[in-house]
Amino acid sequence: MFYLAVDDFDAYVDRIRPLVTVQKDVMEHQGQKLFYFTDPNGYVMAVTQKQTW
Asked: Among 33, 39, 48, 53, which is 20 to 30 Å from 1 by CA?
């Protein structure tokens, strides 16, 4: 599984949603939005909002 931290979560998810197989739609976990999908090679990918630590 791979996690992608993106600058604009909502825009990224809107752009890739029609191109991928959704595994888990947008959900929130500990205040962080997550979106899971499968890429064309079958890898599960997760998208999250980039954070500063």
From this structure: 53
